[in-house]
Amino acid sequence: MCTLSWFHGNDGYELFFNRDERHLRGSALPPTLRGGPPARVSPTDADAGGSWIASNAHGLTVCLLNGYRPADADGTFVSRGQVVLQLADYPDVTTALASLDRIDVQALRSFRIFAIDPRIVGSRVWDGETLSKNETPAVDEAIVSSSYRSAEVRRSRREWFRTLLSLRQGDDPASRAAAHMRAHASHQPERGPSSICMHRDDARTVSFSHVEAASHGTRFTYHDDSPCQAQEPTATVYLPRID
What we know:
With 243 residues, the chain is α+β, with helices and mostly antiparallel strands. It has helices at 81-87, 93-98, 150-166, 173-184, and strands spanning 2-8, 13-22, 29-34, 40-44, 53-56, 61-66, 111-116, 121-126, 143-145, 203-213, 217-223, 235-240.
Protein backbone atom coordinates (compact mmCIF):
# COMPACT_ATOMS: atom_id res chain seq x y z
CA MET A 1 0.00 0.00 0.00
CA CYS A 2 2.01 2.95 -1.29
CA THR A 3 2.02 6.02 -3.55
CA LEU A 4 5.01 7.02 -5.70
CA SER A 5 5.64 10.08 -7.88
CA TRP A 6 8.64 11.81 -9.46
CA PHE A 7 9.83 14.29 -12.07
CA HIS A 8 13.09 14.85 -13.94
CA GLY A 9 14.85 18.24 -13.92
CA ASN A 10 17.84 19.74 -15.72
CA ASP A 11 20.50 17.57 -14.09
CA GLY A 12 18.60 15.00 -12.05
CA TYR A 13 15.22 14.19 -10.56
CA GLU A 14 13.06 14.36 -7.44
CA LEU A 15 11.13 11.37 -6.16
CA PHE A 16 8.39 11.18 -3.51
CA PHE A 17 7.17 8.02 -1.78
CA ASN A 18 4.39 7.40 0.77
CA ARG A 19 4.59 4.05 2.53
CA ASP A 20 1.27 2.71 3.85
CA GLU A 21 1.21 -0.12 6.40
CA ARG A 22 -1.11 -1.87 8.82
CA HIS A 23 -0.91 -0.92 12.49
CA LEU A 24 0.15 -4.47 13.39
CA ARG A 25 3.37 -4.16 11.41
CA GLY A 26 6.53 -3.13 13.26
CA SER A 27 7.97 0.36 12.89
CA ALA A 28 10.63 0.63 10.20
CA LEU A 29 14.20 1.56 11.08
CA PRO A 30 15.27 4.99 9.76
CA PRO A 31 17.67 5.28 6.80
CA THR A 32 21.24 4.14 7.29
CA LEU A 33 24.26 4.59 5.05
CA ARG A 34 26.11 1.56 3.71
CA GLY A 35 29.65 2.30 2.61
CA GLY A 36 29.59 0.38 -0.66
CA PRO A 37 30.80 0.65 -3.34
CA PRO A 38 28.53 2.15 -4.30
CA ALA A 39 27.46 3.94 -1.12
CA ARG A 40 23.76 3.34 -0.53
CA VAL A 41 21.08 4.68 1.81
CA SER A 42 17.82 2.96 2.73
CA PRO A 43 15.36 2.56 5.60
CA THR A 44 14.83 -1.01 6.84
CA ASP A 45 11.64 -3.04 7.20
CA ALA A 46 11.75 -4.18 10.83
CA ASP A 47 9.60 -7.28 10.22
CA ALA A 48 10.99 -8.75 7.01
CA GLY A 49 14.31 -6.99 6.52
CA GLY A 50 15.15 -5.43 3.20
CA SER A 51 13.59 -2.13 2.16
CA TRP A 52 10.96 -0.55 -0.06
CA ILE A 53 13.28 2.24 -1.26
CA ALA A 54 17.03 2.71 -1.67
CA SER A 55 19.27 5.32 -3.32
CA ASN A 56 22.94 5.05 -4.26
CA ALA A 57 25.87 7.35 -5.03
CA HIS A 58 25.42 6.90 -8.80
CA GLY A 59 22.12 8.77 -8.52
CA LEU A 60 20.00 5.61 -8.89
CA THR A 61 16.89 5.09 -6.75
CA VAL A 62 14.98 1.80 -6.61
CA CYS A 63 11.57 1.43 -5.01
CA LEU A 64 8.96 -1.32 -4.79
CA LEU A 65 5.18 -1.43 -4.54
CA ASN A 66 3.50 -4.64 -3.44
CA GLY A 67 1.19 -6.64 -5.64
CA TYR A 68 -1.86 -8.23 -4.07
CA ARG A 69 -2.69 -11.50 -5.81
CA PRO A 70 -4.55 -14.12 -3.70
CA ALA A 71 -1.67 -16.62 -3.91
CA ASP A 72 0.61 -14.14 -2.10
CA ALA A 73 -1.05 -15.15 1.17
CA ASP A 74 0.00 -18.79 0.78
CA GLY A 75 3.38 -20.46 1.08
CA THR A 76 6.79 -19.24 2.16
CA PHE A 77 8.40 -16.39 0.24
CA VAL A 78 11.64 -14.44 0.31
CA SER A 79 11.21 -10.78 1.31
CA ARG A 80 10.63 -8.58 -1.73
CA GLY A 81 12.60 -5.88 0.05
CA GLN A 82 15.82 -7.79 -0.54
CA VAL A 83 15.38 -7.23 -4.28
CA VAL A 84 15.38 -3.46 -3.78
CA LEU A 85 18.76 -3.65 -2.05
CA GLN A 86 20.21 -5.92 -4.73
CA LEU A 87 19.14 -3.61 -7.56
CA ALA A 88 20.46 -0.56 -5.71
CA ASP A 89 24.00 -1.86 -6.18
CA TYR A 90 23.84 -1.09 -9.92
CA PRO A 91 24.86 2.20 -11.57
CA ASP A 92 21.76 2.90 -13.68
CA VAL A 93 18.19 1.94 -14.55
CA THR A 94 19.07 -0.33 -17.48
CA THR A 95 21.50 -2.58 -15.62
CA ALA A 96 19.43 -2.61 -12.43
CA LEU A 97 16.21 -3.76 -14.10
CA ALA A 98 18.06 -6.23 -16.35
CA SER A 99 19.43 -7.91 -13.23
CA LEU A 100 15.91 -9.10 -12.36
CA ASP A 101 16.30 -11.74 -15.07
CA ARG A 102 18.99 -13.36 -12.90
CA ILE A 103 16.84 -13.42 -9.75
CA ASP A 104 14.53 -16.30 -8.81
CA VAL A 105 11.30 -14.30 -8.85
CA GLN A 106 9.31 -17.49 -8.26
CA ALA A 107 10.41 -17.19 -4.62
CA LEU A 108 8.83 -13.73 -4.33
CA ARG A 109 5.32 -12.41 -3.83
CA SER A 110 4.02 -10.21 -6.65
CA PHE A 111 5.37 -6.66 -7.00
CA ARG A 112 6.00 -3.69 -9.25
CA ILE A 113 9.53 -2.29 -9.05
CA PHE A 114 10.73 1.11 -10.25
CA ALA A 115 14.20 2.44 -10.95
CA ILE A 116 15.08 6.03 -11.73
CA ASP A 117 18.39 7.70 -12.53
CA PRO A 118 19.20 11.24 -13.73
CA ARG A 119 18.35 10.28 -17.33
CA ILE A 120 15.47 7.80 -17.37
CA VAL A 121 12.90 5.87 -15.34
CA GLY A 122 11.76 2.29 -15.84
CA SER A 123 9.69 -0.39 -14.17
CA ARG A 124 9.03 -4.11 -14.26
CA VAL A 125 6.12 -6.13 -12.89
CA TRP A 126 6.12 -9.63 -11.41
CA ASP A 127 2.51 -10.83 -11.29
CA GLY A 128 3.31 -14.28 -9.92
CA GLU A 129 3.44 -15.84 -13.38
CA THR A 130 5.29 -13.46 -15.72
CA LEU A 131 8.07 -10.92 -15.24
CA SER A 132 7.31 -8.04 -17.62
CA LYS A 133 9.85 -6.31 -19.80
CA ASN A 134 11.16 -2.87 -18.87
CA GLU A 135 8.35 -0.32 -19.16
CA THR A 136 8.55 3.48 -19.13
CA PRO A 137 5.94 4.94 -16.74
CA ALA A 138 4.06 8.13 -17.61
CA VAL A 139 5.42 11.45 -16.32
CA ASP A 140 3.54 13.33 -13.55
CA GLU A 141 1.40 10.31 -12.69
CA ALA A 142 0.97 8.84 -9.23
CA ILE A 143 1.82 5.14 -9.04
CA VAL A 144 -0.48 3.55 -6.47
CA SER A 145 -0.86 0.19 -4.78
CA SER A 146 -3.61 -0.70 -2.30
CA SER A 147 -4.89 -3.94 -0.79
CA TYR A 148 -8.23 -2.26 -0.02
CA ARG A 149 -10.67 -1.66 -2.89
CA SER A 150 -7.65 -1.65 -5.14
CA ALA A 151 -9.12 -0.34 -8.41
CA GLU A 152 -11.24 2.32 -6.69
CA VAL A 153 -8.37 3.60 -4.53
CA ARG A 154 -5.90 3.69 -7.44
CA ARG A 155 -8.34 5.63 -9.61
CA SER A 156 -9.18 8.16 -6.87
CA ARG A 157 -5.57 8.86 -5.90
CA ARG A 158 -4.43 9.24 -9.51
CA GLU A 159 -7.28 11.65 -10.31
CA TRP A 160 -6.65 13.79 -7.24
CA PHE A 161 -2.92 13.74 -7.86
CA ARG A 162 -3.41 15.14 -11.37
CA THR A 163 -5.80 17.77 -10.01
CA LEU A 164 -3.44 18.88 -7.25
CA LEU A 165 -0.45 19.08 -9.61
CA SER A 166 -2.46 21.20 -12.04
CA LEU A 167 -2.76 23.86 -9.30
CA ARG A 168 0.98 24.45 -9.01
CA GLN A 169 2.19 28.03 -9.34
CA GLY A 170 4.89 27.39 -11.95
CA ASP A 171 6.86 24.77 -13.85
CA ASP A 172 10.22 25.41 -12.20
CA PRO A 173 11.68 22.60 -10.04
CA ALA A 174 10.79 24.30 -6.74
CA SER A 175 7.14 24.76 -7.75
CA ARG A 176 6.90 21.21 -9.05
CA ALA A 177 8.45 19.79 -5.88
CA ALA A 178 6.11 21.82 -3.67
CA ALA A 179 3.10 20.53 -5.63
CA HIS A 180 4.25 16.92 -5.23
CA MET A 181 4.79 17.46 -1.49
CA ARG A 182 1.29 18.90 -1.07
CA ALA A 183 -0.21 16.03 -3.04
CA HIS A 184 1.52 13.39 -0.92
CA ALA A 185 0.15 15.04 2.25
CA SER A 186 -3.33 15.45 0.77
CA HIS A 187 -6.56 14.14 2.30
CA GLN A 188 -8.64 14.67 -0.86
CA PRO A 189 -11.44 13.75 -1.34
CA GLU A 190 -11.50 13.18 2.45
CA ARG A 191 -9.20 11.80 5.14
CA GLY A 192 -9.58 8.06 4.66
CA PRO A 193 -8.59 4.98 2.64
CA SER A 194 -8.66 6.73 -0.75
CA SER A 195 -6.62 9.81 0.17
CA ILE A 196 -2.97 9.87 -0.90
CA CYS A 197 -2.01 10.42 2.74
CA MET A 198 -4.00 7.38 3.81
CA HIS A 199 -5.81 6.77 7.11
CA ARG A 200 -7.88 3.69 7.96
CA ASP A 201 -8.88 2.04 11.23
CA ASP A 202 -6.32 -0.70 10.62
CA ALA A 203 -3.65 1.12 8.57
CA ARG A 204 -2.20 4.49 7.62
CA THR A 205 0.60 6.19 5.73
CA VAL A 206 3.51 5.57 8.10
CA SER A 207 6.40 7.34 6.35
CA PHE A 208 7.33 9.71 3.54
CA SER A 209 10.61 9.66 1.59
CA HIS A 210 11.89 12.48 -0.64
CA VAL A 211 14.91 11.91 -2.89
CA GLU A 212 16.67 14.81 -4.64
CA ALA A 213 19.30 13.65 -7.15
CA ALA A 214 21.55 16.16 -8.93
CA SER A 215 24.92 16.22 -10.66
CA HIS A 216 26.77 16.80 -7.38
CA GLY A 217 25.00 14.15 -5.30
CA THR A 218 21.78 12.71 -3.86
CA ARG A 219 19.90 13.88 -0.78
CA PHE A 220 17.58 11.34 0.90
CA THR A 221 15.09 12.90 3.36
CA TYR A 222 12.93 10.62 5.50
CA HIS A 223 9.87 11.42 7.62
CA ASP A 224 8.90 8.63 10.03
CA ASP A 225 5.22 9.60 10.17
CA SER A 226 2.29 10.46 7.96
CA PRO A 227 3.25 13.43 5.73
CA CYS A 228 0.23 15.34 7.07
CA GLN A 229 1.83 15.16 10.54
CA ALA A 230 5.59 15.16 9.98
CA GLN A 231 7.09 18.64 10.33
CA GLU A 232 10.82 18.01 10.62
CA PRO A 233 12.57 15.10 8.87
CA THR A 234 13.57 12.10 10.96
CA ALA A 235 16.77 11.73 8.95
CA THR A 236 18.57 13.36 6.03
CA VAL A 237 21.46 11.57 4.32
CA TYR A 238 23.62 13.03 1.55
CA LEU A 239 25.55 10.89 -0.95
CA PRO A 240 28.22 12.64 -3.05
CA ARG A 241 27.88 11.63 -6.70
CA ILE A 242 30.24 9.10 -8.27
CA ASP A 243 30.48 8.17 -11.96
